[in-house]
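Q: We require from you a single protein entry containing the residue sequence and its fold in token form, and nothing else.
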Amino acid sequence: MDAVDRRLLDLLQKNAKNSIQVLAEKTAISTASVQRRMRALRDAGVIQREVAILDPKQVGLGITAIVSVELERDRLDQIDAFKRKAREDAQVTHFYCIAGEADFILIVMAEDITGYEAFTHRFFFADKNVRKFRTSIVVSTEKATSELPIP
């Protein structure tokens, strides 16, 4: 990956709707080169997907919860079952396996506090392998981005 690829990636992160022509102008390469580079970046898995970033409140999601989770047992089958459940649940938007006091961190979206409470009953209380979970409710979002810092 060279400087032009990095510039293309930076431009795409800011606005994936930029046309090939605009990308070519901003990177000072031909449209054919932009198309070739984009195809190579997709094929290599650098560009995983191109999506629309939505405003949670505009689509009815008023609660963002950051949840740390400790599991009861360290059996591989139970850990795998929990991971699978978290990956598949639409309310879990981010899911991290961590080192430290907890085993996992989840970012969970819900309509309201009642919706989040229903999630906890379904997801945590119904799972005998969850030792404990701790929730922090986001009061205000000061920065949220999917853009990666490209060196």
